[in-house]
Amino acid sequence: LPKHVIPKNPDVIIPDYPYGPSRLFKQSNKGLYGGSRIQFGNNVSRKSETKTRRHWKPNVLSKSLYSVTLDKKIKLRVTARVLKTIDREGGLDAYLLKESESRVKELGPLGWSLRCVLLQKPLVIQQMRAKAQALGLP
Fold it and tell me: I want to staple 116 with a disulfide (CB 3.0 to 4.6 A). Which of 14, 35, 111, 120 is the partner?
């Protein structure tokens, strides 16, 4: 886990994750899983149509992703789908800082704390002020 990124000192304020930790698939609390979890179903034989229970696990990878704002690599457990989304969004920072409700919901507790750390960095604050000024907001 990125303990070197999420500080324990009182200077950085990290509020509680609004959706709470996952109780069904607890390992998703310690990485960027994008809301994916173990799925269950049946194997059905072609000949006798006998059903056998089986499960599908998410494709979890351990990756070091670079954060431009923090200027360091962060080692995370990421699903392949989230990795593809990070590439599409334009990097880890853009993925974490997207403001849609569905993105916040799929971040999980670890992603939420990384997002809060990023939001308190001067570079991100400056970018958000520039966006607000471009929109004509105070």
Answer: 14
pTM for the complete prediction? 0.86
Under 8 Å CB-to-CB from 96, ≥6 apart: which residues?
Answer: 107, 111, 114, 115, 118
As a whole number of angstroms, the distance between CA 51 and CA 45 comes to: 7
Nearest to 36 by CA among 19, 20, 60, 58: 58
Q: Which of 16, 6, 28 is nearest to 118 (CA)?
A: 6
Question: Measured between alpha carbons, how far apart are the two ends of the chain, in Å?
Answer: 38
* pLDDT tens figures, 24-33: 899 999 999 9
